[in-house]
Amino acid sequence: MADMLQRGSNLPRVGDYNEVLVMDLIRRHPGISRIELAERTGLSGQTVLNICRRLIGKNLINQIGQIRSGAGGRRLAYQVVPDGRYAIGVDIDPARTVLIAVNLAGEVIDRMPLRMDDHSDIDQIVAGIDRATRDHLSRGRRGTLSGLGVALPRAATARCDPADRQQTRAGWNADELRDSLRSRLRIPVRIGPDAVAAATAELWAGTIDSQNFAFIYLGASVGAGVALGGEILRGETDNLGRLDHLGGDPNGPVCACGGRGCIGAVAEPSHLVVRARDLGLLNGTDPDDPVSTAAGIVELGRLAEYGDSAAAEVLDYAARTYGRAAATLAGLLDLDTIVFGGPNWPPLEPAFRRIVPQTIEALVGAGAPEVTMRSTTLGGEVGSIGAASLLLAETAGPFVAHLVLPA
Q1: What share of the chain is helix, strand, coil (3-state, %, to 5)?
Q2: pTM of whole model > 0.70?
């Protein structure tokens, strides 16, 4: 029988992984002691001490003195140097685009206005990011810049056969954008799907206490970022988390794939606008224009808040549909938490909070672990924070690497 293939670390040395592991524990537990680090990692006390000395030398952590132990002794304690590293992140969504800087503590330390006349023109996007980044750098922030992270709709990031590559409506893709930004800015650039970036942000800068969750991102399109065991999953072609053909409405119309009521055919923001127009609402909204669609979703939320039954019907339909999708993800992947967020999330939140939890409970089934539905604590900037986190996680996030030790 052939040996089972195992995926090893892409880091050059085991020591690098150990360093990242210790760094992440210190970041998430300020004031953690050397002895606690050794207990949590299984490393020897001397190894932990050597790692901490290296991290101090890199200005990533510092020693905050000694803390008393239960036995009356004193232990060395550490915390991150927040400005020891930082990264810039931008979520390119036509409805809301902001470029921000995030430090090692997950704090937003700067916001840069992003001026773009056309979100669909790659030259406009590159020029806008270039101007905002240079404006930020001209103000002389302290700390070492790790690079620029960019969150894009999944269709622009999937790694497929070039003949089948999914692209944005303008025809450009992630590789083209990354190469252009690297050429102009001369800094590292990382690009990822917006839902994956948002899930990374929850682990990096959010308050989530789950290690097994899905982040359902509601932007110009929708997708899910998935974390299992505290590690963000991406898939071989960066396509993990596509919701397009996940069933949301068993009584919905037949999708082009042959399924019925697929999310991508009935419940993406543009489809909700079409549904509203069929009910006599949002007649001036263009479902083919993401900016107009986002404004329409906001208007639906406003109308529902003031008692419009037709608007409430559309939002309740969306909540039931995504509730079914969330239940499918939770049941299939054994998740304990579903997080919602993204530019189009706020108007949908009241209906979702009312309907999604009961939908999940009904569909996951009796005896299954409880699944919690929650809203991101990072607000509308979660995509940009996540984009920056793609860089920062390489410094202090062990979930970005696998390690297989020889038997």
Answers
A1: 45, 20, 40
A2: yes
